[in-house]
Amino acid sequence: MSATLHPQSTALSLAASGMPVLPLRRGKVPFRNCTACADNACGGRPNMKTPGPCRCAAPCHAWAAATTDPAVIVSPAWAAAWRQAVSVAYHPGGAGLTVVDLDDADAIAWARGALPATRVVPTTRGEHWIYQGAMRSVNAVHPGVDIKSTMSYARWLGHGTGAMAALPDAVRALAVRDPSPAHRTPQTLSGLLTGGQGECPHRTPAYLERGVSMAEQRITEASSAVHATVYRTFLAVLSRHGRCGCLTDTHVTRLFTAAQAKGETVRHCTDAWTNARTALGM
Question: How far apart are CA 195 and CA 57, in angstroms?
Answer without folding.
Answer: 55
